[in-house]
Every structure is written in C-alpha cells, then in structure tokens.
Design brief:
Largest sheet of chain A: 7 strands, mixed
CATH architecture of chain B: 4-Layer Sandwich
Shape of chain B: globular
Oligomer: heterodimer
Largest sheet of chain B: 7 strands, mixed
Strand order of the largest sheet of chain A: 6-5-4-3-2-1-14
Distance between the termini of chain B: 15 Å
Helix content of chain B: 10-25%
Shape of chain A: globular
Radius of gyration of chain B: 18 Å
Helix content of chain A: 10-25%
Number of helices of chain B: 8
CATH architecture of chain A: 4-Layer Sandwich
Strand order of the largest sheet of chain B: 6-5-4-3-2-1-14
Number of domains of chain A: 1
Distance between the termini of chain A: 6 Å
Number of domains of chain B: 1
Chain lengths: 279, 307
Amino acid sequence: MKLRFWGVRGSFAMSGREFLRYGGNTTCVELLTDAGERLLIDLGTGATELGKTLMSREFSKGAGNLPILLSHTHLDHIQGLPFFTPFFIRGNTIRIIGANPSVGSTLEATLQNQLAPHYSPLNGLENLAAGVSIETVAAGSTFEVPGFMVTTAAVPHGSMWSTGYRITADGKTIAYLSDVEYPNIDDPLPVAVNLARDVDLLIHDAMHADEDYELRRGWGHSPARAGVVVAERAGAKKLALFHHSPDATDDMIDEVVSRTAARTAVPVFAAAEGSYVDI
Amino acid sequence: MQITFWGVRGSYPVPGAATVRYGGQTSCVEVRSASGECLIVDAGTGMRALGNKLLREATAPQNHHVLLSHVHWDHIQGLPFFSPAYIAGTKISIYALLTAADELQQVIGGITRQEFFPMSLEAVPATFDFHEVAPGVGIDIGPFQVMPIALNHPFGSVGYRIDCDGSSWAYVSDTAPFDRVLHKQHFLPGPEELSEDDKTSLGDMRDALIRGLKGVDTVIYDTHFLPEEYERFPHYGHSTPDQALDVCEAAHCRRLVLYHHAPSHTDDQMDKVAADYLELGAKRGIEVLTSFEGMTLPIGPAPAEAS
C-alpha cells in the first residue's frame, strides 16, 4: 500500500512562502493498493489538486470508481468537495462514506447544505454529474471497500465527535486520527489506542505545539505529544504529525518534529503535501 | 481613500509555489478613507490575515462594516476566522443581498452551524447585525457612500460603487458578461436559450452597471477567465478582462483592476495576463492593473494634485 498526502493543514488553507515545504492545503489523503485500488480520506482543499491529477486517468472518461472516507464535516475537511473535478464527469461512481455528524444534521443534509444555492452555484448534490452516494457508517463498525478493510471509531473533537479510521490493505495497516482531543491529553482514550494497535503508520492530529496547548485546551485538537503517547501505547511503527496549525510556518513545524522525535523511540515525521509514504 | 487587497483569488484558496506572488486567498478588500475609517468588501479567506492586522492595530474593540457581493463560499469563508469577532465589544455589521433564503442572519450564520465550524456566530463574543441591500438603494456607512449595483451571477450578486474623499471606486465581482447567459434562481448545467425578455433584462442590467460606474476612478472587476476559458464555461458566472474593458470603456473609467483570478492561474500566467492587458488597456485609454495579495492602491488623484 502507498499513501500520498494532498493536504495536511488544519482549519484553514494557508498560501505563501512560509508554507511551501509542508504545504498549505487542508486535509486530504490518498491510499493506493499494490493492485491500484484507491481510497481517499477527507476532502479539504488538497482534494482539488488530486482531482486534477485523477482526470488524467479513467476519471476523465467517466469510468472512475472512488470511495471517500470523511472524518467529519467541519469545513476544512469538505471545502474541496465542490471543486473535485471527478464529480463533474458523468459515469464516475463516487461513494462518500462517513458518520452522521454527532451534532446538528445528517451527513447527507450537511453536504446538501454545503451546496445550497446561496452558498454554491451547484445547488445540490443531485447536480453533480457523477453518480454520488452518501453512505453512513456507525462508530466501531468494520466494512470493506474494494482493496481495503476499514474499521471506524468515534473520537472526541471539541463539541462534537469525529471518526477515526483504521485501514488495512496488502497486509499493511494505517490509522487516521485527525481532529481529536482526549479529555486528558496525556492519557489518550483506549478507543484511539486500540484503533492504532500495531499499525505501520499512525497519522495523528498535531495542531498545536506542546507549549501552545494550554491556551487552546478544549478547541478539539491535540498537541504533538498526544500522538506520541498513542503511538507508544499502541505499538505503532511510525508517527506522522498531521493537521498542522495555520499559524505554523515550515520552520516552526521543523522545530516541533525535532522536539517530538527527541522524546520517543517511535520514528516521527511531519506530513508534507505531495509526499508519498510506502507503507 | 485607498484600498488594499487581502484576497484576489476566485472559487477556493490555492496554496503552493505557483501562487506565492499573486496570492492564494479568496476575495477580500480593505478600504480606508483619508481619515482612517475602514470598510471591508467581501469576507473570503483573505479576511483572516486582515483580521489579524486589524486586531494588532486596535487599542479598543472596533465597529467593523463588511459589504458582501454575495454569499458563495469563497466570499464568506473568512468570516469565522476573522479574529476581531472573538473580542468582546467588537461590533460587526454585515451588508448583503438576500438570495435563495429567508433571512441574511440564517444564511451567514449558517456557515458556522456546528456541523461546519466549532463555534457558532451567535456564540462568538462580537455582536453582529445584518443589513439587506438592494440594487440602486444607496447606503451611507461613516464617510463612505455606497451604491449597490445588480450583477449577473448564479442566484444574484451585487457590485458596489463607493464614493469617499472626493473620489470613487467600484467593486464588480462576481459577474458574467451581459450577452450570452442570464443567471436566475436555478442551476445552469449549460447556457440556456435566451428569450426576448431575458435579452432585455441583460441589456437593462448592463446599462444600469454602466450608469453606476460612470466616471468612477478605479474599477475592480471579476476577470476570472481568459477568453478561451470563458468559451468553455460561459454559464459559470464570471467574466474576462476583455469584457471588463468593454464595460470600463463605456463608463469612462480611468483604471481597471483585474481580480478574482481563476485558481488554476499560476503566477507566471498572471504575469503574462498583466502584461498583455496593460498593453490592450492602454490602446483604449484605460490603465489596467492586475491585483495581487498585499497590493495597496490610492484612489483618485494624489493628495498633492488634489489640493
């Protein structure tokens, strides 16, 4: 299995010179099996660039199949949806899979609202030319999409819950825990540790530098050290710091990585836009 | 009066090496009167950096006035990230056209529904008030005289002519040209055949825009598309620099500023657009500038000439 980061930024897309190495696009991750099956996680602005790349493949001919997992529906995880080109080609089959938001509305109603006529000229999911299905999954469930086994867990994210994913393909496993804040940040919930048990790669929310966390407690995000504890307890083989703060410049992220790496034996790196990881 | 561009991109923010010079953030312009009073036009992602600057400069909570052209995401997405909103005592007045909804507060507040954003507009410390605007009905905001002008965009948008300190500029974004497609209150999968009434509506809209822009010093215009791109997407609700030049020429405007750049346009492409249209504009007696993030433009004659 191969993984590529298309968007690693949290909350807000950042343009400019200080964000070029790690990238300014909001969250989107692509997984590819050795046989070429594809799965996406989240549709932040990183998805717009990926969408263009996919158009050089079967998606331009209306023959693409794509499952997409959503961690939740905060804007930075769905803002690429209206600009993801494969949606505009008739014949493509795209499955959007996620939990109903733990607050507010259903997943389908939320995405419809995103495309409501005052907000978007698309005026509703039904105007996307591709075949689009919205599929809800329950927390703790396990299901299969072609090439991948997926297990979900609900994790606390401020005033709501987001969905964490454990994904296995080609005998390798990753866990995606973006947008999470444990009630005691230094004692992660067992549900998260279990989801990440023995994974080859853990992708974890690292929105805050450790020293900034106190000021932002309760905002729904983790300091870099939270991912370390999850990785160590779960026996994860590698840790990717993810969902970087919009205020974190490339140099600041370098600093967080070196300080985080110094405190653990688990290999740590910061997710960078455009980079591939061989799992 | 002077204006500063905080976001010049259309549709969605575009980070990366290809947009470093012109900028990747979406629509937001800061207007300052000679006496220092501030008006904000559009609340795209550029509004985050503007808010941080305003907060650094402020010694006490401020009253902010925000004119919205319409409420598509790229024009309102910055609002929840506008840091002065998180300071108690701040007052934010929002002026917008009501389209496809019952009330402004519900639409604008709706972007902070808890499924979308962790803190709702009702819960932030600042107080908000909402003012519906109507094309042709002028409003005074401090020293600024503001005139909304109807534009041709899916579900409607408005441009604004703003007069202050003896000079004027206009914000004309987002709009399609006024010949091939009439945008109404429904989804357009492609151009529709125009009825005679549609053609009359388009002509009337163009006439009203040109009347509204008459003699304006500087016009900021939605020039999302290059001509060859427009041919493929005439129903998307955006214009080309050539169409903007036609309008500015008819309205006798001194200067045109290209704005709302397509997300796909790289800095190198924008350099070519800027050079090409500077030359084309000069032939028609119009100075054409291409906006970039951080650009500040004085409006009207320089103070020395004015005195």
